[in-house]
UniProtKB/TrEMBL annotation:
Keyword Ribonucleoprotein: no
Oxidoreductase keyword on record: yes
PROSITE patterns: CYTOCHROME_P450
Xref: SUPFAM superfamilies: Cytochrome P450 (SSF48264)
Cited InterPro entries: Cyt_P450 (IPR001128), Cyt_P450_B (IPR002397), Cyt_P450_CS (IPR017972), Cyt_P450_sf (IPR036396)
Record-listed E.C. numbers: 1.14.-.-
Organism (species): Zhongshania aliphaticivorans
UniProt family annotation: Belongs to the cytochrome P450 family.
Protein name in the entry: Cytochrome P450 YjiB
Length: 420
C-alpha cells in the first residue's frame, strides 16, 4: 500500500479539483496536494498550459497526478506521455522548443541546444557582468522599504536574458511583461495576454531576422545564444529560422519568470526565519544546500501537462490513450513518503537532490544551472553588502493568477546596509 494511503471518505474530490484554480489554492496549494496524494489520479482539472489564454482557449479535462512515484513515472516514460501540447498548438501562443517536442525531434533539438548552451556562454561570459549589475541593483535598494519582487527579483533574470541573446539592456522590462503573460500566473485580461503573445513573437522575429541579415552581410555579431542557435550544427542538422525564433522565446518565458519567483522565494525563507541570514553570511558553503531545499519546498514550477499515447495505469487508475495528464512536481516534492516533514525547511536532507522541480530525464531543464548561478550571485551580493533584512512575511502576498508557478506577487522588505 502506498505510504500516503488513508481513510479519505470525507474528502469531496470533485470540489477539491474545482477549487484548485481558486486564488486561495494558487497562493498556497500544498494542503490541497496533501489531500490529493491520498488518492490515485483524479480526472477533471480544467487548467491552462503556458501561452494559452483563459477566457479564449478551452482547457481539456486532465488527470491530476500528485504522488512522487507517479510523477516520476510520467517523467521517465516519454514514450507513453507525449510533450506535444495540442491545446497550446491550437492557441495564439508560439510553441515552446524542447518543452513541447517528443523523440526523435526532441533528441535532435536538444543536441543542437547543447551546442549553443556551452558553459562559457551561459556562465563564464555573463558572471562578471551579472555581478556588477546585481551590485548596482542592491546598492540602490539599500536602507529603504521596497517590493523585492519589483526592484530586485523581477529585474535580474530578465537582464540575464538580454545578455544571453544580445538584446538591448533596456528591453528587460518588455521581457518581464511578456513572460508574466505567457506563463499564466499573473492578472492579465484575455486581450492583454493575446497582445503580449503577439508582441513577444514579433519582437523575436525582427531580432532574429536582423541577426541573420548581419551574418549574411559579413557584419561582426556578438557570440551570444541567438548567434549560437543560428550557427549550431550537430551531425549535419541545423535549426530553421522559425526554430531559432522559438528557442529565443522559450528561453525568455521559461527562464525569466520562474527564476524571478525562485529568487523571491529564497528571500521569503529568510523572512520566515531571520536566523538564516546570519547562518548564510557566516558560512557561504551552505548557500547551495539552502537553495536546493528552497527548490524542493518552494520550487516555482508547479505542474506540466502530457498527452497519453497508450493505455496505462497510474497507482491502479486506468488512463486511456488520448487522455490529458497534469502532473505536479511541487506536490511530488512534498510527498511524505520521500521527504519526511515536507513543509519544514531542512538543510542537509540526504535526498534533496531527488526533487523534481527542474524535471527529470530527457526533459530536465537545460536552464537549471543558469538559475542557480543567478540566485547564488544575488545571495552573495546581499550577504556582502547587508547586515540584515527587515520585514515580515505576513506583509507579503503570493501570486494567485494561475497554478503554474508558486511565488510572491509582492514581498516588502528592507535590505539593511552594512554600517562599517
Amino acid at each position: 500500500m502506498n505510504n500516503n494511503a488513508m481513510n479519505t471518505a470525507d474528502i469531496d474530490i470533485d470540489n477539491l479539483i474545482k477549487n484548485m484554480l481558486s486564488p486561495e489554492c494558487i497562493s498556497n496549494p500544498y494542503p490541497v496536494y496533501k489531500q490529493l496524494r491520498t488518492q490515485p489520479p483524479v480526472n477533471g482539472l480544467l487548467d491552462y498550459p503556458p501561452g494559452t489564454v483563459p477566457g479564449v482557449d478551452t482547457p481539456y479535462p486532465a488527470w491530476v497526478v500528485t504522488r512522487y512515484e507517479d510523477v516520476d513515472y510520467v517523467l521517465r516514460n516519454p514514450e507513453i506521455f507525449s510533450s506535444e501540447d495540442p491545446m497550446q498548438a491550437n492557441s495564439s501562443a508560439p510553441s515552446l522548443m524542447l518543452v513541447n517536442h517528443d523523440k526523435p525531434r526532441h533528441t535532435s533539438l536538444r543536441n543542437l541546444a547543447k551546442m549553443a548552451f556551452t558553459p562559457k556562454r551561459i556562465h563564464d561570459d555573463i558572471v562578471d557582468r551579472l555581478r556588477i549589475d546585481v551590485n548596482e541593483i542592491v546598492d540602490r535598494s539599500l536602507n529603504a522599504e521596497m517590493d523585492f519582487m519589483v526592484e530586485v527579483a523581477g529585474v535580474i533574470p530578465a537582464l540575464v536574458m538580454t545578455y544571453l541573446m544580445g538584446l538591448p539592456k533596456e528591453d528587460y522590462k518588455l521581457l518581464v511583461r511578456w513572460a508574466n503573460a505567457f506563463m499564466v500566473s499573473s492578472d492579465f485580461t484575455p486581450e492583454e495576454r493575446q497582445a503580449c503573445n503577439e508582441e513577444l513573437f514579433h519582437y523575436f522575429v525582427a531580432n532574429v531576422e536582423k541577426r541573420y541579415q548581419d551574418i549574411a552581410a559579413g557584419i561582426e555579431v556578438s557570440d551570444d545564444l541567438m548567434t549560437a542557435f543560428i550557427n549550431a550544427e550537430y551531425e549535419g542538422d541545423v535549426l530553421t529560422k522559425q526554430e531559432v525564433i522559438l528557442f529565443c522565446i522559450t528561453l525568455v518565458v521559461a527562464g525569466a519568470e520562474t527564476t524571478t519567483y525562485f529568487i523571491g522565494n529564497l528571500l521569503g525563507v529568510m523572512l520566515e526565519d531571520d536566523s538564516w541570514f546570519d547562518k548564510l553570511k557566516t558560512d557561504r558553503k551552505i548557500i547551495r544546500p539552502f537553495m536546493e531545499e528552497c527548490l524542493r519546498r518552494d520550487g516555482p514550477p508547479q505542474r506540466l501537462f502530457r498527452l497519453v499515447l497508450q493505455d496505462c495505469e497510474i497507482s491502479g487508475q486506468k488512463i486511456k490513450a488520448g487522455d490529458w495528464v497534469a502532473f505536479f512536481m511541487a506536490a511530488a516534492n512534498h510527498d511524505e513518503s520521500v521527504f519526511p516533514d515536507p513543509e519544514k525547511f531542512i538543510i542537509g536532507r540526504k535526498n534533496v537532490s531527488k526533487h523534481v522541480t527542474f524535471g527529470r530525464g530527457i526533459h530536465h531543464c537545460l536552464g537549471a544551472p543558469l538559475a542557480r548561478v543567478e540566485a547564488e550571485i544575488m545571495l552573495n551580493v546581499i550577504l556582502d553588502k547587508c547586515d540584515g533584512i527587515k520585514g515580515s512575511i505576513t506583509n507579503s502576498r503570493r501570486q494567485s493568477g494561475g497554478l503554474l508557478a508558486y511565488g510572491f506577487a509582492t514581498l516588502p522588505l528592507e535590505l539593511v546596509g552594512k554600517t562599517a
